[in-house]
Write a structure and sequence with these properties.
The complex is a heterodimer of chains A (about 400) and B (about 650).
Chain A lengths: L4 H28 L10 H55 L6 H22 L20 E4 L2 E4 L6 E6 L2 E6 L2 H6 L1 E2 L5 E5 L8 E6 L8 E6 L8 E6 L4 E6 L5 E4 L2 E6 L7 E6 L2 E2 L1 H18 L3 H58 L3 H27 L8
Antiparallel strand pairs in A: 1-2, 3-4, 5-14, 6-13, 7-12, 8-9, 8-13, 9-10, 11-12
Chain B lengths: L1 H26 L9 E7 L3 E3 L2 E3 L3 E8 L3 H32 L5 H16 L5 H60 L7 H17 L2 E5 L5 E5 L3 E5 L2 E2 L1 E6 L7 E6 L6 E2 L7 H36 L2 E2 L16 E4 L8 E6 L9 E6 L4 E5 L4 E5 L2 E5 L2 E6 L7 E5 L4 H4 L13 E2 L1 E5 L8 E7 L11 E6 L9 E5 L5 E3 L2 H4 L3 E5 L3 E6 L7 E6 L8 H8 L13 H41 L3 H37 L1
Antiparallel strand pairs in B: 1-4, 2-3, 5-6, 6-7, 7-8, 9-10, 10-11, 12-21, 13-20, 14-19, 15-16, 15-20, 16-17, 18-19, 22-29, 23-28, 24-25, 24-29, 25-26, 27-28
Helix pairs in contact in B: 1-11, 2-4, 2-5, 2-6, 2-10, 3-4, 3-9, 3-10, 4-5, 4-6, 5-6, 6-9, 6-10
Chain lengths: ~400, ~650
């Protein structure tokens, strides 16, 4: 076919320009280290890069949240563990105070120590986080959660529970509220509690256990004796006034009614009463206050030793409940810390695979790119040489 | 001898002309649009001389240009289409570059904004963390505005290029008419005005680069040039003009109008085919508009969902959350030629089903025909309020037949995105309500979760209490007696629902109750005052990052932005591939045309040699004739 001179030159130039632009592109890729320079290079990959980048960003954020959650949970766990020690120590003191050999003033001293333990417990419950906010006050982070009022130490926070997001769709509780930790301790044995009437004069103490389903209404147990020579009898009435059990009192023999199993020791006086009431929630502070009040009452006015024992037993029950409650709370924190660890592991693995995928898509394979660069350079040189050679060809060179 | 002399002379004359033609070819080797010319020789007439017929030499006839009108037309058409595609490709490649940065783009801003919410949720009352949230929101605002203003610059560029293009088109059309005149005046003088014809071809090609044309040649040698759907921009020696006029619905966008004589302008924007002009229009109408609408939809989605959630919360001063971002608004433009007093107002009802499209509403005398521009779907609505694609349109006033409105659902949302929360304490981190269990409860029931759906009737006038009653709904049918809100009783069977049951608080929201309540146990829902440590609303807002809130609840904000980027990427790639295909076709056509019309220097050199030799030979004839003459003279002398 016929070619015009212009075409010959133009084609040569076009080839050179084409090679140059390819060279520039390769050069740009090497300079930036990226295989994808703009979305149009590979639109599908570009979208993938966007979503992988945001996924990786989310995971990094979740990992930071996990670190925060871990710090916050550990702080709570620390406070609860110390609170456990305080309860242990209080328990020892109560056991000591329950000893008949102690004088009222000894008990007074124990009451004083117990009061300082209660103060220590109070400052644990009112501990603050690294930002100066109260840890255990629920959402009311500016309000000290436990405050002394005329009615004892009261919870002033709310029942809010702080959560953090640690995975997509996964929230973890990072701060229990003070009510749940220190306040919601079931009284007695957890189902019901037995308390001696303050006017009791006998020295009976009582052990209780649950023997079956316990109704919502309490029971009242009264010891009676018609004449001093008669055997002491007991009578149990339920909340509606109906008698549900009764008989002669035999020390050490179990009395069972309405899901309650009671075993008395000692000798009751006629008129002594014991109330069996459904467990309620009381706070650790209430339990300690009950112990302090009983010991103080005894050292001041000479409380009936039998009554004191009963009170001490009740306080011991309360402390045991408190301790196991705190252990439960700590166990659930431990479980959450474990789940955070496994969540973190999942995140770490995903992050690695996301980053690898990202790198696969957008990062340059240098070996390949350098290879391509060399190829482009060679092609460009070849094109230039070809151009010079072709340009040299002209009949006019031979005309003279 | 005399015969030989005269023959030689005709040869010298003709060959000189031929050399001149060749020389002209040689020097025009680089002239754009030049068609190589060839001169044809013709043997002179024979004369009868004593029974012989003798030739009388040679004469040069016409100088013709090597020309194939089909190939020239092909080059012109491919010039128009490749110029169009080049324009689309280069503009969309620039747009692609603007949107493409994966490390600092809009997506990253969305990411860091929600990330800041997450960070704040670990210390909800922290002022520094709150300031970070506001700063990130402002960065998001700036990025949205930056992107939108960049898109706006593209719009302006298209407009100003359309303006200058129409000027250029008018100028070239004028030149063609002029050349037409010159050619017509030379018609009939014999020969062919080659350079004028070449010039006219070049002018038509220049015109085709700007706007697709077709030509019709008349008997007199003039050509008529048509644009669009047959508008004659050049008729013989007369030319008409193109102009730009503001669109009747949206004055900011320009239409191309054709005017002839004193007739009024006719918009021919949609009819324009080929050339840079169609490229600009196509880029504007398909890529740029779509991108702006898509970007706007992301902004609408962001402000709608974040605002809605933020208003369900309360801030550090126990005030309800305000709009976090400015409320997105729908732009409504009335046709400047509306005859009636029709009004149209539009508000956003549900961002999740909104379409990134403009709508055109026109009144047909009874009903409004509403056309979704992105896919030309029509819907018909009687005057009044109508819901369409997540918009609530109110069609009021007294419309006249033919009245029109343009509704731009999302166009301006990105540029209008503005952070309304200025002070750290205004961030509503806490949820408006919280739940409590009464202290005297003996059962284990609790409210695990409070969800606020509608904060308009909040704060509560008094606490909402739920008191468990084993016979709430009749003997043996347990539930809660509810105070403070309707309904007065809700069913809750601890045996069945103990693992969690969602109860509705009419007009306010929902709560999830679980556990085993005892009779008389009380659960309380109350205003969440003083809750500086509450982060529930923050968690809910941070969760919006992964919520599928756009495109019929199919895409998250970031998904949708990704779609936008990929759409532009795909269209850019398409335009580039099409442009390179079309360029290859153009090159082929040019090669074919140059093969016929282009100058080849070697060929010319060969011609030159041939002509030189012929000239030398013709000159030799003269010397031979002279020798013959001398021979004769010498013979007679002796």
């Amino acid at each position: 076919m016929r070619l015009s001179t212009n075409q010959i030159y133009q084609q040569g130039i076009n080839v050179i320009l084409d090679q140059q632009s390819k060279l520039a592109e390769t050069n740009q890729k090497i300079g930036s280290g990226k295989n994808l320079l703009r979305p149009s290079d590979d639109p599908a990959a570009a979208v993938k890069v966007l979503s992988l980048t945001s996924e990786a960003g989310n995971i990094e954020q979740f990992s930071r949240n996990i670190d925060t959650a871990r710090t916050q949970l550990s702080q709570g766990e620390q406070a609860m563990s110390q609170a456990g020690n305080v309860i242990q120590r209080s328990r020892e003191l109560i056991v000591q105070a329950n000893n008949d050999a102690l004088s009222p003033s000894d008990r007074g001293a124990i009451a004083t120590e117990l009061a300082s333990l209660q103060q220590e417990m109070l400052s644990l419950a009112n501990s603050k986080d690294e930002s100066g906010n109260y840890y255990f006050s629920g959402f009311q982070s500016d309000t000290a959660p436990f405050q002394r009022t005329s009615a004892g130490i009261a919870y002033k926070g709310d029942q809010g529970t702080r959560m953090l997001q640690v995975g997509s769709g996964i929230q973890v509780e990072t701060r229990p509220n003070g009510q749940a930790v220190f306040g919601d301790v079931r009284s007695g044995n957890g189902t019901f509690s037995v308390s001696a009437n303050d006017a009791n004069t006998g020295n009976t103490t009582v052990q209780s256990s649950v023997s079956g389903p316990f109704g919502p209404n309490g029971f009242d147990l009264i010891f009676t004796q018609t004449t001093p020579s008669d055997p002491i009898t007991f009578q149990v009435v339920d909340g509606l006034g109906a008698t549900v059990a009764g008989g002669n009192y035999v020390e050490g023999e179990a009395i069972t009614f309405g899901g309650v199993n009671l075993t008395f020791a000692g000798t009751p006086e006629p008129g002594d009463r014991f109330a069996v009431s459904p467990s309620i929630n009381e706070s650790v502070f209430d339990v300690l206050s009950a112990g302090i009040d009983a010991l103080n009452a005894y050292s001041n006015s000479g409380l009936n030793p039998g009554l004191l024992h009963n009170k001490m037993d009740q306080v011991l029950d309360g402390l045991d409940q408190s301790l196991s409650h705190l252990l439960d709370e700590r166990a659930s924190i431990g479980a959450r810390l474990n789940s955070l660890d496994s969540q973190q592991e999942v995140h770490d693995k995903n992050l690695i695979s996301y980053k690898a995928a990202l790198s696969d898509i957008q990062d340059l394979d240098y070996a390949e790119a350098i290879n391509e660069l060399n190829l482009r350079l060679t092609s460009l040189q070849a094109a230039q040489q070809a151009y010079i050679k072709i340009q040299d060809l002209s009949l006019f060179r031979y005309l003279n | 001898m005399a015969n030989s002399l005269s023959i030689a002379l005709t040869g010298l004359t003709a060959l000189q002309r031929a050399v001149a033609t060749t020389s002209n070819n040689i020097v025009n080797v680089g002239t754009e649009g030049y068609s190589r010319q060839t001169m044809s020789f013709e043997a002179g007439p024979t004369t009868a001389s004593g029974g012989f017929y003798l030739g009388s030499g040679v004469s040069s006839t016409v100088i013709e240009r090597a020309y194939d009108s089909f190939l020239v037309a092909q080059v012109r058409d491919f010039t128009a289409s490749s110029s169009k595609l080049d324009t689309v490709a280069s503009l969309s490649a620039r747009l692609d570059d603007v949107l493409g940065d994966t490390e600092s783009g809009f997506n990253q801003n969305i990411q860091t904004f929600f990330g800041a919410m997450q960070s704040l949720s670990s210390n909800p009352s922290g002022v520094p963390e709150r300031q970070v949230v506001i700063a990130e929101a402002q960065a998001l605002e700036r990025q949205a505005q930056y992107l939108d203003s960049t898109l706006d610059q593209f719009d302006n560029e298209v407009n100003s290029r359309l303006k200058s293009l129409t000027d250029e088109v008018n100028l070239i059309a004028g030149n063609i008419a002029q050349v037409n005149g010159s050619i017509a005046s030379l018609q009939g003088t014999g020969g062919s005005p080659n350079s004028l014809l070449d010039k006219r071809d070049s002018l038509v090609r220049d015109l085709a680069k700007r706007i697709g044309v077709s030509t019709i040649e008349s008997e007199s040698g003039e050509i008529n040039v048509l644009v669009g759907s047959g508008q004659p921009i050049v008729t013989g020696i007369n030319s008409s003009e193109l102009s730009v006029i503001p669109n009747k619905l949206d004055g900011r966008r320009l239409d191309i109008a054709f005017s002839i004589g004193n007739a009024s302008d006719v918009a021919i924007t949609k009819q324009i085919k080929g050339g840079e002009m169609e490229g600009l229009l196509e880029f504007r109408d398909t890529i740029l508009e779509q991108t702006r609408n898509d970007l706007g939809l992301v902004a609408v989605g962001l402000s709608e969902v974040v605002n809605a959630q933020h208003k369900k919360g309360i801030d550090l001063n126990d005030q309800f959350g305000l709009n976090f971002f400015s409320q997105a608004e729908v732009e409504v433009l009335a046709n400047s030629g509306n005859a009636g007093s029709a009004t149209l107002s539009a508000t956003i009802a549900d961002a999740s089903v909104m379409q990134p499209s403009d709508y055109q509403a026109s009144f047909d005398g009874t009903n409004w025909n509403i056309k979704r521009m992105s896919d030309s779907t029509m819907s018909i609505a009687a005057p009044g309020t109508v819901s369409l694609d997540g918009l609530s349109l109110t069609l009021g006033g007294a419309p006249a037949n033919g009245d029109r409105f343009l509704v731009r659902a999302t166009r301006n949302a990105a540029s209008a995105l503005e952070v309304q929360i200025k002070r750290p304490e205004q961030i509503a981190a806490a949820l408006a309500l919280r739940a409590e269990t009464a202290s005297g409860n003996t059962g284990s029931a609790a409210i695990d979760q409070v969800l606020v759906d509608d904060a308009t009737s909040l704060p509560l006038a008094g606490n909402i209490t739920l008191t468990f009653n084993p016979d709430a709904l009749g003997a043996g049918v347990p539930g809660f007696d509810v105070a403070g809100i309707t309904p007065a009783v809700v069913a809750y069977d601890p045996a069945l629902d103990g693992l969690g049951k969602i109860l509705t608080l009419t007009g306010i929201g929902r709560i999830e109750v679980s556990g085993q309540p005892s009779a008389g146990d009380v659960l309380v829902v109350q205003n969440n005052t003083g809750a500086r440590g509450d982060n529930r609303n923050l968690l809910a807002m941070a969760d919006l990052q992964s919520a599928k809130i756009l495109a019929n609840s199919q895409a998250t904000l970031q998904d949708y932005y990704g779609r936008l980027v990929s759409t532009v990427g795909v269209k850019t790639r398409q335009a580039q591939v099409n442009a390179s295909t079309e360029n290859a076709l153009l090159q082929q056509a040019s090669t074919a045309r140059d093969g016929v019309s282009g100058v080849n220097l070697d060929e010319e050199a060969a011609n030159l040699l041939k002509l030189q030799q012929a000239y030398q030979a013709a000159a030799k004839i003269i010397s031979v004739a002279e020798t013959l003459f001398q021979t004769l003279l010498a013979a007679t002398r002796t």
